[in-house]
What we know:
This protein is of the alpha+beta class. The chain has 2 helices and 9 strands. It is globular. 28% of the residues are buried.
Amino acid sequence: MDTLIRTTRVLRPAESVRRLALPDDMTAPLxxxxxxxxxxxxxxxxxxxxxxxxxxxxxxxxxxxxxxDSDHALEWPAPxxxxxxxxxxxxxxxxxxIHRPDGTVPYTPxxxxxxxxxxxxxxxxxxxxxxxx
Length: 133
């Protein structure tokens, strides 16, 4: 069976993938997914968050570790990408850990991250949009 990566509600076959590895002394009691934004957004996101968990970066993206199912009832705005299981595309220069939180839990809270990404992309959060009948 082909490996699949979910990217902003689109599933596509992936030729080569890797899972972001948490530091050995960290635990993920709520599972582990990742949210990526283009690298130029990374430095804009960090100071807007109340807590920053593990963050990984490569030349193209910054990846935040979030609890599993942090995409439930959320449409992460483009150009953000959601990676179930923290499985990301493989590359010659894999993402490296650039931020590690104090403690043993790797998570960035997903709602503040979502709101920050919405703000930076000019996207209205899903729950603020008008409901059509």
